[in-house]
């Protein structure tokens, strides 16, 4: 799976969680939750949705590695390679 496909999937899932926001405006180092005003419950739903959609296991202790678009992309690319 390439970077563009992963990013498109992230944006689609974020749009479902926060329909009033445009995820494509996120800067790479911007905190996703803060930028899109996502509460902790919606953030958890987002992580679960990514996990299911991309078929990757994201353990709770790794949630901190998914805070920004850049860190989330790097994390997912590493997980998908293995």
How would you characterize this protein structure?
The chain is mainly α and 82 residues long. The chain has one domain (3-81): Non-ribosomal Peptide Synthetase Peptidyl Carrier Protein, Chain A (Orthogonal Bundle). It has helices at 3-17, 32-36, 40-54, 69-81. The protein is globular, with a radius of gyration of 11 Å.
Summarize the structure.
The chain is 59% helix and 0% strand.
Structural class: mainly alpha
Low-confidence stretches: none
Q: What is the percentage of strand-forming residues?
A: under 5%
Give the integer mean of the pLDDT values: 94
Helical coverage, percent range: 55-70%
Number of strands: 0
Number of domains: 1
Which series of helices and strands comes N to C? HHHH
Cα-based radius of gyration, to the nearest Å: 11 Å
Reported CATH architecture: Orthogonal Bundle
CATH 4th-level superfamily: ACP-like
Question: What is the CATH fold-level name?
Answer: Non-ribosomal Peptide Synthetase Peptidyl Carrier Protein, Chain A
Q: Give the helix tally.
A: 4
User: Which outline best applies?
Assistant: globular
Distance between the termini: 12 Å
Tell me the name of the CATH class.
Mainly Alpha
Biggest sheet layout = none
Provide keyphrases for this structure.
82 residues, mainly alpha, Non-ribosomal Peptide Synthetase Peptidyl Carrier Protein, Chain A, 4 helices
């Amino acid at each position: 799976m390439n970077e563009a496909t992963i990013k498109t999937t992230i944006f689609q899932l974020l749009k479902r969680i926060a329909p009033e926001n445009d995820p494509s405006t996120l800067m790479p180092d911007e905190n996703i939750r803060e930028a899109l005003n996502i509460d902790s419950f919606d953030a958890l739903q987002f992580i679960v949705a990514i996990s299911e959609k991309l078929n990757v296991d994201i353990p709770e202790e790794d949630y901190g590695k998914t805070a920004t678009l850049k860190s989330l992309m790097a994390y997912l690319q590493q997980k998908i390679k293995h």
